[in-house]
Every structure is written in C-alpha cells, then in structure tokens.
C-alpha cells in the first residue's frame, strides 16, 4: 500500500543550526502517528515543512504517491493537509468565528462570505467542548479575551471543521485540561474512523500509548526509528529519544529543614477561600487537584496579582504586603509560568535580553556593560544546558522547551527565596523534565523553597515533598510520605 | 450581587462591545460635538446646501484617508500618496487638454488617471513584497519617483480643464448631490470587499502576519491588493481635487499622505495594523476638516490656528488610546 504521505531525506538549516538532517517518514491512511523527540529536535520544523509554512532545503515529499510542491500553507490546505500550530495561528483582534474561517475559500456563494452559515458551523464546533470551557467562548468574542486553553481549542476547531485528510497536531494537548484532552481525543478518533490520518506531537507518554498507532522518534533532526506502539514500551521509546539506555530516576525522600519559611494565614482572594499553609525552608510544596481549582490563583496572589487580597503572610518572619509583582520580586519571589507566551517570553527580543530582564530590575542597575551581563548570563544558561547559537539571537528562534529554560534562567538570576511555578513543564520533553526536577531539588538544597502547581499528577507525586489538594478554592487535603499516591490524590480531588 | 449591579455591568460591557465592533463610534461622537459647536456659532453652517458644498471640498481627504486605511490595516503605510495625487493630476489634465476638453476626452482622461493611480499602488506593493523592503522607506522613495514623473509630464502648475468638470461635482443626480454618490460608491466597494472576506484578511495580516500566512492567506498578494486599493482611491481623490482646482499641478497633494494617515488614526485605526475601519477614516477625515472650521468660526487668531489644530488632533487621538486601554483592561 502506498503511504498517504511520505518524506524522503528532508533537511532544513537555520543559519548554523541544523534543525533537520535526514528525515524519512511515512504516514498511512487512517493511522494516528506520533512524532516524539526532545525539545528542539525538529518536530515543529518538520510539520511546518510538510505544509510549506517553512521551505525545505532538500529532500522530497510525496502525497498520495505524487511529489508535491506547495508554495504556501494555503496550497496544503487545499490538498487536505492542515496543522494545529504549537504557537497557534490565531489573530488576537479577530473574533473566534473570523479566526476559524480565515483563509478558507469556499465560505459561501460566489466567494462571498455567508456569516450565518459560518456561525452555525462555528457554534456546532464549539458545542463539542461545551461544559469544559467558560460560557465566554462564543463565535463573536475576540480571541485576545480567551484563556490559553480556550485559544488552543479554537485553534484545534479551526482545523477540524475542515476535516482535512491529514491533520498535524503540534502539542495541541499541552495547554488543555484533562477533560478537554478527552474531547480532543474523541475528535481524533472520529476522524480516524473516517479514514483520515493524524500526526500528533506530544511529550506525554501516556497519550502516546492511549491513542497512537505508530510513533516516529526524532533525535537531533534525524528520524531514528519508527515503532508499532502495540509492540513497544516506554523504555524503548525513551532510549531511542536520548540515544542511550535510560532509566527515570527513582524517588528519593528528601528531608526538608524543620524551619518555617513562609506562613499564610486566612488568605482569601478571588476564588481562594481561607488558605492556611506553611512552607518550610528547602521544601518543594506541590499544589494539585483538578485543574482550575485555585492553584494558579494562589501563585498569582503570592506574586502580587491580587492586591485586594485578605489575610496575613509572613516570609522569614517578615510581614508581607503583596501589592504588585515588583513588591513580590523585591521580597524574594519568582514566578515561572508554563504559559510562557502570555507570561514569559518577549518575542523577537534576544536571548540575552530575555534572560537578564528580572535581574536588572531587581538589582536596580541603570548602567551596565554588555560584556559583564554576558559573563553573568553564561553560567546560568550553562547550568540549564541551553542549546543555542548566539546570545543575540531572537528567543523566538528557539524551540518551545528551550524558551522555557530561558524563563527559568531569568528567575534564577534574581536569586529568589521562594519560586512559584505554575505548570512549568508544559511542552518540555521528558529528559529536560527530569533535569528540571533535579534542578529544583538542587535549588532546594541551597535553601530555596518552591511552590509548584502541576497538571501532571505523576510528576508532582514523584517529586514534591508534600502536596496540597485544592478544590474550588479550598485546601481540602495534604498528602505526604506514603499518602503521596494517585489514589489518595484523586480521592481528595474528587470529593 | 443585586440585579441593579448586573444591569449596570451589562450596560457597560454593551458599550464596550459596540466600540470594539465599530471603533469609529468615537469619531462619530466627535463629529457631532464639532458640528454642534459650529452650529452654535453659525447656524447657517448646518444647512443642507452649506454642508453639501463642504462635503465637496472634503472629498479629496476623505478618499485619500479611506484608501490609506487598507494599507494601514495590514500594518503598512503609504507615504507616496501625496505625490501620487500630483502624478495622476497632471496626467489627467494633460490628456483632457490633448482631446481639447471634449466629453469623451475627459472620460478617457479620468479612466487613464484611475489606471495610473491603481498601477502606482500595485507597483508599491510589488516592490515591498518581492524585495522584502520596509513600507515606510519604500513608499517614501516611490513617492519621490512619482513626483519626478509628475514634473516631467508638466513642469509647472497650469493647464486648463473645462468648467463643466467643476459644475459636475457641484451638481446632483436624481436630487442627490454628486459627492454623496461618490461616497456611496466607495462605501459600496468597501462593503463588497468586506463580504468577500478581504478586509478581514488584511486585518489578519496586520494583526499577526505569521498566523495569517499559516492560516492559508496569500500574504504577499493581499498586501499588493491593499496598496493597489490605496492607489485606486488616491486616484479618486485626485479627480475630486481637479473638480475643485480645474487645473494641473506637479505640486498638488503635498502633505496629503500625512493628513490621510492622521485622519485614519483619529477614525480609530491602529497604525501598527490589525485594527480599524475605512469607514472610521471617513469620519476621521471629516474631523480633520471640521477642526479648521471651528478654529475659523471661533475667530481664533491666525497665529494660533496651527497650534490649536495640532492640539485637537492629539486630543482626538488620546481619546481613542484611552478607550483602547480601557477595553483591553476589561479583557484581563
Ligand atoms: N525560525 C527559526 N530560526 C532559527 N532557528 C530555528 C527557527 N525555528 C526553529 N529553529 C531551531 O530549530 C531547531 C528545531 O526546532 P523545533 O521548533 O522544530 O523543535 P521541536 O522539536 O518542535 O521542539 P519542542 O518540543 O521544544 O517544541 C531548534 O534548535 C530551534 O532553535
Ligand atoms: Mg515544537
């Protein structure tokens, strides 16, 4: 059987970076095919090359057995290939409906737009996610007023309403809650049943084995293997990914110091109700439960995002006044969000600028030489194992995971006392995740404390010293030592 | 939460929604205020006959601002507009004189003018997209070229156009003044483009170019379209100018591009692209002209006229900026 889509020896360079060397890949009709690999190995580049959002340097692409030469993503869409982009292709000022139908040709009679018909399709599509998104999400709301998960859903539906023959989902599930992911998977399965093919990119192994048929593993721009998922294992895939035998680290029980660092008394703000907690020096305190139960809000409040809060807070014996992020930074807080597009990255600006930002603010330095800044930045980036060409390159050229490392570096430079992490491993590959966990523990050993919200139950159970379970703005349970299990977590979260 | 509060909230968001959908509502409000100011001082100003004459004299700026907006929506700018007016102006006048001022000759001249303007716009767009140059510098440079061409076609102000050209624009057809027909025509073109989805695509390009490209829009072609439209409407503006001056000048249109751009901004367009409406620019253009009249009728010393004009423009712009800010604050 000839494959629906076949890539032969595709390569792509960005200046000095070899994003893809020799990519061979084939996609059958009606299969769900995963692309797996570390951050920056070239997955997004490959998907963009397929639809000609990027031009390839060499190699050949066959579609239905015929060589294709698209000249832009519009051509690929005509041919039935569409991408859900990792960085999203939505236009902030346009409405949901306008975004969904942007660039499509057959929208009405004689090339005129039929807004009524569009709205119908749009509503029907949104209906699929009813109950797991806010009431806010209607066809005429501008996209810039949506939350990250809602934007992702619009980007997904924008592609699904066209029912393309080949859909590429580039980390489409990374900013979705688990109930939303389920609906996405249903959509994917439906398409598969109709004989369409789906290429999925994800860093979550669970998803891979849940709905994948085959997986192609990419390492440093090279496709190293394609495996049948039924006959494969987690270990085999990770071994291909990192190129060596790989075992995930065992859980070590750390013993944080018995020294109270941060005390929160009767904190109420926004959704949060009567939060009481203590954080010990050198502790990793996890926040968990179903998504959106106030975890992010707690972190934001600590970072000065809710100046009208009620309650008393003490850090290191000193009473805090969380009036603004600037105050919180001065008090020794750092905030790392997984939604780096909204809260972290300054697109286009250089790696250097993106890294030193908070440090300059905190130290209040008005004059500095580039040279001295570079020498201060380099050790931090080295510690994070960042792969880059030049400090002056734009941060937008980096892969998603590497951008996240820069945000972490930005805050490490400020020498924080308490690091607030809001799902920091979103879109980060397994190996880098493990490195991040190790880094977190290393930091805690030097006396920093971390409050960590995570949407991945496994990672938080394995790596946090203590986990608080939130439900509707209340802390409903505290898990420690042998109660750190999925069973206990779900029991508390669902109660 | 008591019901009154909810109602208030609804009213407030209602207004904000309306402003978001029609960013030119503010401009309309300013137009009304200025009209009232003028009416108080000089009730005759608001008479239909007087307004028709005014409208005729505003037309060139309105058309120029209208055309400029398509470019601004894509995040671009057309600085060659003023010189384009000069080029189209001298070409039309020369062709009219070539045919001895006959009616078919005039029709032919006007068509040639429209084609030249549109082509000049398309050339702007092609240079920009093919050579990947910045709009600002490119249209600045092509503007110099258009002006040079204009000078080679007619090296000093002059030429003569039959008075019938002038009377045509002051006349009416089916009891409706010609300027109103013209305005309806350009609004019609806008509505046509809107229903074809072209306006949305231009906004998309200005809002997030990569996203527009990835959504399957042929970005380069659409940008050429925007500059072509700018050229087309600039040619219409020139025809209206000839209707006023009934002569040719290679110096015509000097400074028009900046007036058009500022009118678009007053009308709610964002100069960084992605937001605004050509309809708003029409009102922005009216404001620009009304401000002069307010200054005149309130007898402000000539010495301070320019100063006042600048201040009022800043005021109008900052209103828009404040509004945009409060809109985006409600987003958070
Ligand atoms: N526009 C660009 N300019 C320069 N370099 C780029 C550009 N886009 C990607 N790269 C580089 O190409 C490499 C591959 O990037 P790509 O985005 O494909 O990675 P990825 O596998 O999708 O990673 P992630 O899992 O983090 O999303 C990276 O080293 C990145 O820095
Ligand atoms: Mg990627």
Number of helices of chain B: 14
Can you list the ligands bound to this structure?
Answer: adenosine-5'-triphosphate, magnesium ion
CATH superfamily of the largest domain in chain A: P-loop containing nucleotide triphosphate hydrolases
**What integer is the average pLDDT of chain B?**
85
| CATH architecture title of the largest domain in chain A | 3-Layer(aba) Sandwich
* Broad structural category of chain B: mainly alpha
- Write down the overall geometry of chain B: globular
Top-tier CATH class of the largest domain in chain A: Alpha Beta
Name the beta content range of chain A. Answer: 15-25%
Q: Count of DSSP E strands of chain A?
A: 20
**Main sheet attributes: strand count, strand direction, barrel closure of chain B:** 2 strands, antiparallel
Give the domain tally of chain B: 1
Total of helices of chain A: 17
Strand order of the largest sheet of chain B: 1-2
Indicate the CATH topology of the largest domain in chain A: Rossmann fold
Taking pLDDT < 50 over at least 5 consecutive residues as the criterion, the unreliable ranges of chain A are none
What is the molecular shape of chain A? Answer: globular
Largest sheet of chain A: 6 strands, mixed
